[in-house]
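Q: For a teaching handout, I want to show students what a protein-ligand complex looks like in token form. Below are the inputs, and the small molecule is flavin-adenine dinucleotide. Please produce the holo structure.
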Amino acid sequence: MRAIVMGAGIGGLAATLSLRRAGWEVTLVEQTPRFTEIGAGIQLAPNATRVLRRLGLLDEVAAQSTRPSRLSFRTWSDGAEICHYPLGREAEDAFGAPYLQAHRADLHQALAAAVPPESVRLDTSVVGIGQDDKSARVTTAAGERLEADLVVAADGVRSAARQWLFGADKALYSGTAAYRALLPAAEVADLDLPDFALWLGPGRHFVHYWVRRGDLLNVVGAVGTEAAQESWTARAEPAEALRAYDGWEPRVLTILERAGSMLRYGIHTRAPLARWNTGRVTLLGDSAHAMVPFQAQGAAQALVDAAVLGDTLAGVAPADVPDALDRYVRRRLATATRVQAGSARAGEDYHLPDGPEARARDARMAADAAGDGFGAHAAAWPVDPLDERTP
Ligand SMILES: Cc1cc2nc3c(=O)[nH]c(=O)nc-3n(C[C@H](O)[C@H](O)[C@H](O)COP(=O)(O)OP(=O)(O)OC[C@H]3O[C@@H](n4cnc5c(N)ncnc54)[C@H](O)[C@@H]3O)c2cc1C
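A: Here is the structure, written as tokens, with flavin-adenine dinucleotide included.
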């Protein structure tokens, strides 16, 4: 059985590995001339790390990651702790896998290194996908046609495949821009920062956590703003982020001052679809369900898609691929759509103006934490159709 995977992001790489484990021969086609990931942190919740374990990569990724002991929610103005949720041993025991914080390049590299080089076609843009009863095919920019039993389009939030399969719909700007930076630990050593904190304020929030075993502080400021480009490399105006956090607790401002010129990523999403597949072709990852990152679940959902895809397609005969893809989508779509909506709700909740609603939110979160809860962001962690275990 042969598959073509379009896109070597986290989703496409994991799908390649998962299908290979299931006995498929896979050609991974990526438009960039070399494997690349941007310099930023990524949180790997237990549903993501469970998939890494299945792929045999958990130890390698964990060795380069940080394991936060807790997530501390803070108030924007004075830094008072609203509540904290456990993320260390308690979360690992409850959810069956650790919570890790990694450098994206380390994760990407671990996934990419596990794919045999002869299975990869770099510098190859897919410009079309076609199929008939017997096979599916992609056309490349160089005019080549590659044929297989299955095509998986993991081409990200700006997916062209999604348009080819289901008609015109575009990536939608979420109304929030993410200001990003990585700071060497020595530059913030005097600030006595918590392991992992999420500061909540009107119209914006601020997140920081350690990556590379504590060598780097990953900083993300999420700010409601009218328009921003979907680009991992676009620079904000100097001091733009600092101005956006005017009046916040001094440590937040100090981090932003020391970060200097930050990168600005306009967070885009995709509307939920009623289906991801047609015949022998399916979407996977952000192309299917790009979401706001406020519960750190986009890549996690892509990893779970990949695991379920491999599991569903193991041992399938060529003629049965379309039915197997129906089963894959049935196993994934409702959960991914729920996580998309939950992530959007988290953003609204985090950005409430000061007042009764924000106080009610804080009281709710504190009660949840006092009652041994893991927080609303943990709703997606136990949901792994390969392992239905719930805490
Ligand atoms: C600020 C921010 C923070 C985030 N933090 C987290 C987090 O902490 N945890 C988490 O789980 N998720 C997080 N996410 C979400 C996560 O980054 C994405 O969900 C994930 O990277 C999606 O992976 P993907 O493989 O589906 O798509 P992508 O990573 O976008 O990969 C798509 C690939 O397809 C290739 N491609 C596109 N078109 C073509 C073509 N025509 N031919 C060939 N190749 C093509 C691209 O070059 C690219 O390599 C965050 C997102 C943002 C914006």
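A: Two things your students might notice: The mean pLDDT is 94. Residues 6-12, 29-32, 42-43, 48, 125-126, 154-157, 160, 178, 220, 265, 267, 285-286, 293, 296-300, 302 surround flavin-adenine dinucleotide (CB under 6 Å).
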